Amino acid sequence: MSFFIQPTVPYHSSLDIRQTEIAIKQLKDFFQVALAKKLRLTRVTAPLFVCPETGLNDNLNGIERPVSFDVMETGRVMEIVHSLAKWKRHALKRYGFEPGEGLYTDMNAIRRDEETDNIHSIYVDQWDWEKVIRREERTMETLQRTVRSIFDVLKETEAFITSQYGYIQPFLPETITFLSSQELEERYPQLTPKEREHEAAREFKAVFITQIGGPLRSGKPHDGRAPDYDDWTLNGDILVYYPILDIGLELSSMGIRVDRAALLHQLEEKQCMERAQLPFQKAVIAEELPYSIGGGIGQSRLCMFFLNKAHIGEVQASIWPDSMYAECERSGIFLL
User: How many angstroms separate the Cα of 136 from the Cα of each of 86, 91, 132, 256, 292?
Assistant: First the structure.
């Protein structure tokens, strides 16, 4: 079911469609070059689809249906990726990356069960990145240091885009605040997890919410996470306050990846131990893959944020319910 978020003030895009497309390319080019330099990443080519029996696809919360199709020549069924979280770790080993080095790629996905609104689309485009770390670097300190590096790149990108377009004013604070999902629950006990995110973003302007996936003291998780890529004790989301919609806007989900112990614990927690028999998961259990940290950074979300757009459909071509088209037309929002 779609939901339209009304802009906080009467909305008018300062860029027409052609100017918007030019700005999107400028922004994407700048950000990915700066990110690669900051994190020591090499750009690689990645798959659009994978074999489901490999265990490489992201099963998200376990209920979302992947888009699948059969290949005429082989008769095999393939799945469009939900994300490349597990494929990237496999690629680190295959391509011979060493500790301190990593990769990034364009990830394009179709999430057919996504409920759409101003910031959610069934089409997902991200920079997916992954970096080799040593066992002793599987710490909160490593995670926070990496988050600060990414936030530095966001600040650099903001400075660049505001220098190119006079109508854009900087939103980001000087530093990013770290809060665990448990601290968030205790800080805003009467709110839902999503409402807590919005309040934290309003208060701190940029926040990294850590430890997502496992149950909180209330007995419920802050949000769902697949059990077989992020270590739920060493992961999190980057959110920024977005005044045009008065929301906390998630720009990135990331984390230190599971080791053998974390994977087995989380599979048991999610009651899906059968996944331990899939090739990728078996490789983690056998400690055949490098330890790594990685995540995804939303390309359209980033463009929407930095170009002051009120709807993600202004910076990507997707499909929307008739009601969404009507709401956007009434609000002066032009969808690509």
Answer: 21, 21, 12, 12, 11
What CA–CA distance (Å, rounded) separates 296 from 106?
A: 10
- Annotate 75-128 with DSSP letters as a single string: --EEEE-S--HHHHHHHHHHHT--TT-EEEEEEEEE-TTPPPSSS--SEEEEEE
List pLDDT tens digits, range 74-127.
889 888 888 888 899 999 999 999 999 999 999 998 888 888 889 999 999 999
**Residue 2 has what pLDDT?**
67
For 133-205, list the strands marked E by DSSP: 177-180
The angle at the Cα of 116, spanning 113 to 121, to the nearest 5 degrees, equals 80
Contacts of residue 45, Cβ cutoff 8 Å, sequence gap at least 6: 105
Could you report the per-residue pLDDT of 233-250, keeping only the tens digit for each? 999 999 999 999 999 999
Q: E strand or H helix at 248, and its extent?
A: strand 247-257
CA-to-CA distance for 241 and 84, rounded, in angstroms? 27
Residue found under tokens 């202004």:
314
- Answer yes or no: are the C-beta atoms of 213 and 230 closer than 8 Å: yes
DSSP bridge partners of 49: 80
- Let me know if 314 is exposed, middle or buried by CB neighbors in 10 A (0-12, 13-18, 19+): buried
Q: 49-50 and 77-80 as β-strands: parallel, antiparallel, unpaired?
A: antiparallel
Low-confidence ranges of the chain (pLDDT < 50): none
pLDDT digits (tens, 9 = 90+) for 299-319: 999 999 999 999 999 999 999
Q: Which residues are catalytically annotated?
A: 58, 111, 126, 237, 250, 253
pTM, two decimal places: 0.92
- Burial of 150-179, coded b for 16+ CB within 10 Å and e otherwise, reads bbebbbbbbebbeeebeebeebbeeebebb
CB contact set of 245 (below 8 Å; sequence gap of 6+): 5, 7, 8, 118, 119, 310
Handedness of CA 322, 323, 326, 327 (dihedral sign): negative
242 with 249: CB under 8 angstroms?
yes
